Every structure is written in structure tokens, then in C-alpha cells.
Amino acid sequence: MAMASELLKNATEARKTWVKRQTERFAQACQRRLRDSHGFETTATLKIFAPTNTKRGALKAAEELKHSLDEQGFVAPQVQVEALLKGMVFRLSMQASLVKDATDDGTGGLRGHCPICLGSKVLVALAPCGHTVCQDCKPTVCSTHRPTRRKQCPMCRAFVEATTAGIFVS
Question: Which keywords, in A-to-Z order, does the entry hold (predicted)?
Fold first, then answer.
């Protein structure tokens, strides 16, 4: 029994060390993003391989990373698990912001990840395809000044005819 408890203790310490190291790597990615954008981008994304080859282990690692980012003061941390190589390898995608979005007053609608700028912002829906982008990226996919020049959805390449003002779910 003493050997089993010693192994469990070692595993717990190794897991804590791994989470701490990945949190530090994410902070460095944020620092690079801030430096490269001259302070304009405050959201960063980092993709890493999970330290396990089971989905259950990858989900547990994602949960612990999210908790660690939250403890370190990152705003709206998210860690997603992606299966690679037929579920044999898992990749974790970490994303968080350094500051709360100043333009968000809580009335703008559903927040989510924009596939263009990778920010966690208020989303709008594109018509007719229904894909979503943030309000900041809306001008890049919907031409309001030149209705004759139609733009395409960046996900499916359907022509965008209109956008919503926001997405509201009751």
C-alpha cells in the first residue's frame, strides 16, 4: 500500500508541474502577442499536445489548465480538446484574454470565438449560411458601403447577403 500511495503522490506532483509549465508557456504566448501587436491584441491562443492518449485524460488536463488560467487572472479562459490520429493523440487549444472587453456591456448578445480574429467577442450571424463572426470582423465579410460587391463567408464561401445585429438566445 505504501508503494501505491507513493506512486500516486509522484503522479500528482508531475501533473501539477505540467499544468504550471503550460500556464507559463501560455503567459509567454500572451506576452509575444502583446509585443507583436504593439498592445492592441489582448487575447492569445496556444495549441499543445495533451500529456495523455485517452480522451478522459485529455479532458482532465483541459479542466486543470482552465482552472490554472482562471487562478492566474486570465479573463474567460477556454481549453478545447481536439482528437488527432483517430483518437490516439489529443491536442489542447488554450485561449484567454488579459482584459475584459471594454465594449461589452452585457447587452450585445451571445459571446463566442470568432474564426477570423480568434477573439472571444459578441457574435453576429451571416445570412444565408448561418456561420458566425464577431462584430469587429463583420465589415470584412459583409459589404455595407458597396452592396453591388458581394463578399463570401470565410467558412463555406457562400455569398453573404446580410448579417444579424447579434445572436440572442432565451
Answer: Metal-binding, Zinc, Zinc-finger
> What is the pTM assigned to this prediction?
0.54
**pLDDT 10s digits, 97-147:** 776 554 444 456 777 888 888 888 888 888 888 888 888 888 888 765 555
Beta-bridge partners for 89? 84
Residue with cell 484574454: 97
How many whole angstroms from its chain centre is CA 89? 20
Give domain 111-163's CATH superfamily.
Answer: Zinc/RING finger domain, C3HC4 (zinc finger) (3.30.40.10)
Q: Interior CA angle at 78 toward 170 and 43, to 5°?
A: 105
Which three three-digit cell numbers place residue 168?
440572442
Q: Summarize the confidence of residues 71-85 as an average pLDDT.
A: 83
> Which strands, in side-by-side order, build the sheet including 43-49?
43-49, 89-97, 75-84
Cβ atoms of residues 124 and 163 within 8 Å: yes
Please say whether the beta carbons of 93 and 80 come within 8 A: yes
